Amino acid sequence: MAHRENYHRIAMMLTTRVLIPERMDNPALPAGDHAAALRGLERINRLSRSAGILWSPIRGLAEKRGAGDGPIRVLDVATGAGDIAMEIARRAKRSGLAMDVQGCDISPRAIDFARERAKRAGVSVSFFEWDAVRDDPPTGFDVVMCSLFLHHLSEADAVAVLAKLGQAAGSLLLVNDLRRSRAGLALAWIGTRLLSRSAVVHFDGPQSVRAAFSLEEVAELARRAQLSEFSLTRRWPCRFLLEWRRK
């Protein structure tokens, strides 16, 4: 009976979005805890193949680019540890595709972490600070992408940021994030504990699912952001990919 009541409570809790500040977003988080959380998120991104979700449409765009048109310029927004941006750069190099990959984040500590990671790995990716909510859209990028960022935002900020990223994307906008679901919550609870010892990751993982948007909610956000003719597909594990191309 207790198990059934608990299952019902969780199911009811996920019918509506619950946005609570995540510990990772706290600027007062000790540096060691912040670095441990970034390393945990790297492992989660690797297992969930986040870069793979984004790579196919980026590769398709790059393959259509003429040899004299220069490299595809890619921006990873809210890059965190920079691991996804670095993996995109690695895949581009292996594929022989000219690509200039950059990452940005509001957190100077995340940017320092990502720069050091890229330097040690010998991956050519540059990073800079940028506040996606408050700053003007960056310019000169063919592809703008972000992973596991949208669910951190209020509904109003999510609309504003999607519109801003659409303005910044010269050709292609890609948004990869969680879908709010019971399966996603279970995977987040189990996965964060298997893949990281960080208490920050243990708290933030399940909370991210509670704060995530449903597919219907994402579609409505995109429409409000004036992203016409977008595609929205389910991706493993309990993710979605929003893809919008400039006409």
Briefly, what is this?
This protein is α/β, with parallel strands linked by helices and 247 residues long.
Kindly list the characteristics that best describe this protein:
247 residues; alpha/beta; Rossmann fold; globular; disordered N terminus
Describe the structure.
Helix content is 49%, strand content 19%. Helix 3 (50-64) packs across helix 4. Residues 1-8 have low confidence and may be disordered. By secondary structure, the protein is α/β, with parallel strands linked by helices. The protein has a seven-stranded mixed β-sheet, with helices on both faces. It is built from nine helices and seven strands; from the N terminus they run αααβαβαββαβαααββ. The protein has a domain at 49-179 and 213-245: 3-Layer(aba) Sandwich (Rossmann fold), CATH 3.40.50.150.
